[in-house]
Design brief:
Structural class: mainly alpha
Shape: globular
Enzyme class: hydrolase
Order of helices and strands: HHHHHHHHHEEEHHHHHHHHHHH
Largest sheet: 3 strands, mixed
Number of domains: 2
Protein name: Metal-dependent carboxypeptidase
Number of strands: 3
Strand content: under 5%
Strand order of the largest sheet: 1-3-2
Family: Belongs to the peptidase M32 family.
Oligomer: single chain
CATH topology of the largest domain: Neurolysin, domain 3
Number of helices: 20
Distance between the termini: 65 Å
Radius of gyration: 22 Å
Keywords: Carboxypeptidase, Hydrolase, Metal-binding, Metalloprotease, Protease, Zinc
Cofactor: Zn(2+)
Length: 488
């Protein structure tokens, strides 16, 4: 084999092992016995040692120096492998293993603290995670910005300064829209209890109509819904609250967006760096456009209204009232339950806080007070308990610093994609009203999903849309949609 072929063979095994590690993570959040947390931490650490050794193998560096790409696909593979090799060789093996062990155990500690509303129980573990992430960031940054080094793991090619500037442009229009909407009469909320079994049946139907392939996936329950895996094994989770069926349905649609991206990548890219979503921002664009622009549209909620009526009986409102209930705007503590108007403000707050934690400007001991103060400032409501505050998200317990801003970046990308999609698919609302969103998701598969990691993130969006992405289409969409619903 020549150098390029050796790299491809090496990556095939590494990718496969990484999928196994991902499956362990899925099991930990869905089916693992509670008492197995410490053992699972050791297992994850051991597998991370193997993966780190493969990712930093000196032979891989030699092959990269000698390799020549045979085509566009080969050039993209070399770009990913080279970037990953440079990253991984900067992080000591002992640090990578310790991070895997600590964050695996920390996830269980966080879940316990969240259930008990006990910040003190979580704080020592969080302090250790942050110290390890700062150590990792210092190794990666090589005298550069610590936060940018972590952000690059999730959204290559961007920086905290660029994200901050975009947020600064978005905030005035979001705040102005929120103030106008909250000053207007609120639509009626959906009332009643909706049984677990019925929600899960309809959740499965929603996954199917959006194109999720159950021959290569499954739905389970988790505290924090997520999607896991790639290629022929992509699993999602949802959650059920009997008084809030939208939580289950839109969590499912959201995770199906992630899952369909992975399921729809060109099969020839499998077992290579191209066989996964190119970045978390692009990934989030898929989950957000499925959930919001498609799933919360007036056309699709009209179909969903009929499905819920058949499953649960009279809902006490017509299709238009149901559409308004689905898109009801109200301040709330929980990011994952936030409406489209408030959601990005939740992300902006977390972005500022985690940058301060990584820079050292904010200590873990100061986090709860900082969170509560900022939340009251941004949302006008006092946090009533830690599970509604700093303990609500799993991300920091598992070391995902730099991840949060990709949620809003995904919303921005989704706004651009929907603008392009509506230009190409003039009759999209008719299909959505018939419960056929695959007309839109097929467009996404062709324009974006099948290409996996072939292009860089912004290039991926620009290629799909036909124009460079920016925040304008998202803000225009939000103002038009909620201006119509609330008459403002």
């Amino acid at each position: 084999m020549n150098a390029f072929e050796k790299i491809v063979a090496h990556e095939r095994t590494t990718w496969s092992l990484a999928q196994v590690m991902g499956r362990l993570g899925w099991d930990q959040e869905t089916m693992m016995p509670r008492g197995a947390a410490d053992q699972r931490g050791e297992e994850m650490a051991a597998l991370e040692e193997v993966l780190h050794a493969r990712r930093t193998d000196p032979a891989l560096g030699e092959w990269l120096e000698a390799a020549e790409a045979p085509d566009e696909k080969g050039a993209a593979i070399l770009r990913h492998v080279r970037r990953n090799y440079q990253r991984n060789t900067r992080v000591p093996a002992a640090l990578a293993s310790e991070l895997a062990r600590v964050t695996s155990v920390a996830q269980g500690t966080w879940a316990e603290a969240r259930a008990r509303d006990d910040v003190a129980h979580f704080l020592p573990t969080l302090t250790r995670v942050i110290a390890l992430k700062r150590e990792e960031a210092a190794a990666l940054a090589q005298n550069g910005d610590l936060y940018d080094a972590l952000l690059n793991d999730y959204e290559p090619g961007t920086s905290g300064a660029e994200i901050g500037a975009m947020f600064a442009r978005m905030r005035p229009r979001l705040v102005a829209l929120r103030e106008k909407v909250l000053a207007a009469p609120a639509p009626a909320a959906l009332k009643g209890e909706y049984g677990r079994d019925g929600q899960l049946r309809l959740s499965r139907t929603l996954a199917e109509v959006f194109g999720y392939d159950f021959a290569k996936g499954r739905i389970d329950l988790a505290v924090h819904p997520f999607s896991s895996g790639s290629g022929a094994d992509v699993r999602i989770t949802t959650r059920v609250a009997e008084a809030d069926p939208f939580n289950c349905f839109y969590s499912t649609i959201h995770e199906v967006g992630h899952a369909c991206y992975e399921q729809n990548i060109d099969e020839s890219y499998r077992f290579s760096p191209l066989g996964e979503g190119v970045s978390m921002g692009v990934h989030e664009s898929q989950s957000r456009i499925y959930e919001n622009q498609l799933g919360r549209s007036r056309a699709f909620t009209g179909w969903l209204h009929g499905q819920m009526g058949r499953e649960f009986g009279d809902l006490g409102m017509d299709a238009e009232g149901f559409y308004r209930a689905v898109n009801r705007v109200q301040p709330g503590f929980i990011r994952t339950e936030a409406d489209e108007v408030h959601y990005n403000l939740h992300i902006m707050m977390r972005f500022d806080i985690e940058r301060a934690l990584i820079s050292g400007d904010l200590s873990p001991a100061e986090l709860e007070a900082a969170w509560n103060d900022r939340f009251a400032q941004d949302f006008g409501v006092a946090v009533d308990r830690p599970s509604h505050g700093m303990l609500q998200d799993v991300h920091w317990s598992v070391g995902l610093f730099g991840y949060f801003p990709t949620y809003t970046l995904g919303n921005v990308y989704a706004g651009c994609l929907m603008k392009a999609l509506r230009k190409d698919l003039v009759g999209i609302d008719t299909a959505l009203a018939e419960g056929k969103p695959t007309v839109a998701t097929d467009w996404l598969r062709e324009k974006l999903q099948q290409h996996g990691g072939l292009r860089e993130p912004r290039e991926t969006i620009a290629h799909a849309c036909g124009f460079e992405p920016d925040e304008g289409p998202l803000l225009d969409y939000l103002e038009a949609k909620f201006g119509d619903i609330y008459g403002v």
